[in-house]
Amino acid sequence: MNRNLPLKFYRMPANIIFFVGVPLFFFLFVLAYEPFGIVDFLSGAKGHYTLNLIIASLIVLGVTSLSRMLIFILRRGLRLSWATYTLWCLGEIVVSALMLSILMGISWAGIHPYFQVMSRCVLYMAAILVFPYLIFNLGILASVLRDEALAPQADEKSLLRLYDENKRLKLIVSADAVLYIKAEENYVHIVHLDNGKVKDFVLRASMRSLEPVLERHSLVRCHRSYYVNATHVELVKKDSVGYALARLDTEGVEPVPVSKRYYQALSALL
Question: What are residue 237's phi and psi, to 5 degrees?
Fold first, then answer.
């Protein structure tokens, strides 16, 4: 398995599962099973069990909502390993426990020392929240693995093999995954998709040396310095001064210039 967290974990549906499901699980689990003597603890010195349970659930809701929204907002630049993500989840539990310890520290003031109250908050939160975190993470991971199993495997003939100027194989990629190829001095940039993420592979080679293999895999020249995959082109549009750009179907990818010489040929493929 890849060491990095799958992209599905960064998307909004997965994050909604956490910031709705985790606090809801906490509230219903405590209400139904009253585990580990938590009723007496949450009741505090004044017997405010129900109120403190609701506040504790809202604390979990607030922490997970802020944390998961942060993951979603930073999804383009944030790349977590499994180890880092595990620490992130543990951090959510610990922060929730520390927030709860402020409330319960006030409730038990003068009866139990604060650090004793805090340690019990951490233990309660960890013992209860470990279940929804395991269930939801394993559920999302199972969905990722199912999607990978159902995804069509690249046909050997559809694989693009790219060699550098010394005839050394540097990149094997599905032709369908290539968005565009750009020549820049003595290098070419192969902008392609890898597990849903846009990557720019820089190859030391000339565009001329790649032309036969690119045309064999149906990539289309659209500019002196560009080849584009027409299947990823949504629209070719001219601006007010007649300069044409091809807009691709992948978010965050810059439009590809289309010169007048190739405009009609590319437009005919769309």
Answer: -135, 140
Q: Do 191 and 180 touch, CB atoms closer than 8 A?
A: yes
Question: Beta strand pairing status for 187-194 and 197-204?
Answer: antiparallel
* Half-sphere exposure (Cβ direction) of 106: Cα atoms closer than 13 Å: 7
**169 backbone φψ class: left, alpha, beta (φ>0; ψ -120 to 50):** beta
Break the chain into its structural domains and give their ranges. 7-150, 156-269
How far is residue 176 from each of residues 67, 171, 264, measured CA to CA in Å?
35, 14, 22
Looking at domain 156-269, its CATH class is mainly beta
Output b/e per residue, 126-161; b: 16+ Cβ within 10 A.
eebbeebbeebbeebbeebeeeeeeeeeeeeeeebe
- pLDDT tens, residue order, the chain (270 aa): 456 788 889 989 999 999 999 999 999 999 999 998 899 999 987 889 999 999 999 999 999 999 999 999 988 678 788 999 999 999 999 999 999 999 999 999 989 999 999 999 999 999 999 999 999 999 999 998 887 777 655 455 678 888 888 888 888 888 889 999 999 988 999 999 988 789 999 999 998 888 888 888 878 999 989 999 988 888 888 877 778 888 888 888 888 999 888 888 888 887
Supply 90's token pair. Answer: 């543990």
Q: How many CA atoms lie within 13 A of 228 on its CB side?
A: 31
What pTM value is reported for the model?
A: 0.60
